[in-house]
């Protein structure tokens, strides 16, 4: 898979904003991607050095609309820790 297919979008939450100062970034990734593929994709897309990758599968939540109920889609989340001597990801600089 190409790096653009592995990294879907950044996850911008309050907890995610707290990690930006420590060079920790959170991304929504393809369900079939493993940690090695995620690491290589981040390094290629953003030109940084990745120290570690933590992943977790997020289950969909039950949502209701009137009397109809359904589930939101489940996805895989990756928390990427950059090395200390690596430059930060420029996309997140304007957010913090």
Explained architecture:
With 96 residues, the protein is α+β, with helices and mostly antiparallel strands. It has helices at 3-6, 14-20, 35-46, 90-93; strands spanning 7-10, 24-29, 50-58, 62-65, 68-71, 75-82. Strands 1-2-6-3 form a four-stranded antiparallel beta sheet, with helices on both faces. It has a two-stranded antiparallel sheet with strand order 4-5. β4 and β5 (68-71) form a beta hairpin. The longest helix has 12 residues, at 35-46. The radius of gyration is 15 Å and the shape is globular. The termini are far apart. The model has no long low-confidence stretch (mean pLDDT 93).
Blueprint of the fold:
Blueprint: H1 3-6, E1 7-10, H2 14-20, E2 24-29, H3 35-46, E3 50-58, E4 62-65, E5 68-71, E6 75-82, H4 90-93
Antiparallel strand pairs: 1-2, 2-6, 3-6, 4-5
Q: Terminal Cα separation, in Å?
A: 31 Å
* Radius of gyration over all CA atoms, rounded: 15 Å
Strand content: 35-45%
Order of helices and strands: HEHEHEEEEH
Give the helix/strand class. Answer: alpha+beta
Count of helical regions: 4
Oligomer: single chain
Q: Report the mean per-residue pLDDT as an integer.
A: 93
**Which stretches are poorly predicted, pLDDT < 50 over at least 5 residues?**
none
**Count of extended strands:** 6
Largest sheet, spatial ordering of strands: 1-2-6-3
Task: State the gist of this model.
This protein has helices at residues 3-6, 14-20, 35-46, 90-93; strands at 7-10, 24-29, 50-58, 62-65, 68-71, 75-82. With 96 residues, it is α+β, with helices and mostly antiparallel strands.
């Amino acid at each position: 898979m190409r790096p653009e297919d592995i990294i879907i979008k950044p996850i911008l939450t309050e907890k995610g904003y707290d990690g930006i100062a420590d060079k920790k970034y959170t991304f929504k990734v393809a369900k079939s991607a493993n940690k090695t593929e995620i690491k290589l994709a981040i390094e290629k897309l953003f030109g940084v050095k990745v120290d570690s990758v933590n992943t977790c599968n997020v289950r969909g939540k039950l949502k209701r609309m009137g009397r109809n109920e359904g589930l939101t889609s489940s996805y895989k989340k990756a928390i990427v820790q950059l090395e200390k001597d690596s430059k930060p990801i420029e996309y997140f600089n304007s957010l913090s």
